[in-house]
Protein: Methyltransferase
Organism: Luteipulveratus halotolerans
Amino acid sequence: MADDRRGGFRNSRGRQRPDVRRDVDRGRSASRPSERRREGDPARRAAYDVLRAVERGAYANLELPKILRNAGLTGRDAGFATELTYGAIRMRGFYDPVIELAAGRPVAQIDPPVLDTLRLGAHQLLGMRVPSHAAASETVALARSVNGTGASGFVNAVLRRVSERTREEWLAEVTAGREPDDALAVEHSHPAWVVRALRSALLGHGATTDERVEGDLVRLLAADNDPPQVSLVARPGLADVDELVEAGAERSPLSPVGARLGSGDPGAIQAVRDTRAAVQDEGSQLLALALAGAEVPSDDPEGEQWLDLCAGPGGKTGLLAVLARQQGALLFANEVSEHRTELVRKTLRAALDDGVEVMIGTGDGRDLGREEPDTYDRVLVDAPCTGLGALRRRPEARWRRTASDVADLTALQRELLRSAVDATRPGGVIGYATCSPHIAETTVVVDDLVRSRDDVVLEDARPLFKDADGRQIDALGNGPSVQLWPHLHGTDAMFFALLRKTS
């Protein structure tokens, strides 16, 4: 579970004035908006508004749907705004050096609102199928509307210079003379420390070799910049995959309870609106299925007790709840934040209405092992983490995190995992999960715990990861833990370790 709480962020200083621009361009690519309005292009304005909100600390995946709804954007217009928003955020590590050269000044000397406008223009010119004259003129019109007339002249001059070279020419220019990791960081728009961490993770989890690592690293970085396909989960007993297929999705080859939506709004699917199904990465689905599928000896006539220690916002909880019912178990969902506890309740609405019994509470998971020792048969620790495995879905996370965050998070992860072991009864299992492949957050946390205690062992989790046809999934790593990858499995880079309490 990513813990992206830190934003940024400087206040806007751009001047405001109405947009009096006339519609001067009629050429359209297949991906640009279909509607025109005298006050400006609402799709580009929506993208700009999301970037400004992200600069203030918001999350694009939460902010964009609200802004699209408020602007009344659907179909191609919404698709254009989405591609523009996510692309400009993801690729700013490449676009900012380009903007610096074209502007003749560091980006730190450009007002943040104007810089966001320039990033939107750069993405249209270098990353989208928008004709250069249209990309420049429409972005200048946006600048006139949101940044002021003076700023629009600056934006026009910079974008004209950007448009004079191809993406490949700019790439050669901005990477020339850089160290290899720094060049990769610019080309694939990741901070250099993330590039190094991902290389170490690929090697450490057995996903590559010394001979292949550079090529595999490039594939991983590229996968982080590919828009992820929408993955859906049909919560067993509430919905099934066939219902999602009938609504336009395709059956997942990876998850037996999953489907993939190639296009369209998942919120338009009735089962999703009802919370009988949900948007959920297939990797997250597989983790919940693995924990539920682990063998646990139990002779309690009242059934097992399961615990989701860090339940918010409730995606994995929603799947665990219905799996627990199928196995005659009772799920307890704990979350430290009252706000996120409410999100869990909303996620579980259909399950609760259908009679699924879930005990939902708010508390510090670090204390639960002391308060309820030797209680639970299965415990999931979906630990707060850097979120480096979910950069496809959370594009701003790469710019908010720093290498120094890892130490603080690993300290929290260790405390949560110790508490989870204490809360587990002998013979029970603990699933430790992160949406980060960082070695310090994954194998180091788990291995240190196992070395420090004599009441827990690490088990091979790989046989629990089965695809939709019941076959073991390939390329899960050296074991005994599992590491999924976007470039190998099409999922977020989820880590899962299975531990068993012995005494």
